[in-house]
Amino acid sequence: xxxxxxxxxxVTISTKPIFNGKVISLQVDxxxxxxxxxxxxxxxxxxxxxxxxxxxxxxxxxxxxxxKPLERMQVEIPAGKLDSGEEPLEAARRELxxxxxxxxxxxxxxxxxxTSPGFADEILHIYVAEGLKQVGELKLDEDEFLDCLxxxxxxxxxxxxxxxxxxxxxxFAVYAWQIYRLTGKWS
Length: 187
Description:
Elements: E1 11-20, E2 25-32, E3 38-45, E4 49-56, E5 59-67, E6 72-76, E7 79-81, H1 88-100, E8 102-103, E9 106-114, E10 123-130, E11 133-134, E12 146-151, H2 153-161, H3 168-183
Parallel strand pairs: 4-10
Antiparallel strand pairs: 1-2, 2-3, 4-5, 4-7, 5-6, 5-12, 8-11, 9-10
């Protein structure tokens, strides 16, 4: 297996912007395939995001919020998109404090992954926060409404089974927590 340029690379012939929004932009690319044929690719462009795994004693911090694409409430770890020019580490600090009212002494990078590389370029950076202390009230965006929750490991597992936790970053966080409980290490 090689991580260098592949014989299967698609060459962009043209790009047509479709939509430019607050969070994402959409474009349609015409590409030349390795066999010489052409195809259309619909792409979502995203500035990237961060998510934070944070434990207070033996409970993890989660947020419970309505997710319009799912038309229901969803329990997730604190997360948010990167502001223009913002470093992921600073975004993780900001999102943790805004969504939970907690600050941390340190953040450690666990991993970064692409959320849906078949159609989007969003990269998600996951951090573990340590040395947490409550510093104040939530500082939510004007269109953001959520509750902050502190859950046990067993609560989180139950919410996965009930599909109240059903997004990849939060499921990843709960399984990373399980590994941490067994080994004392986050990765």
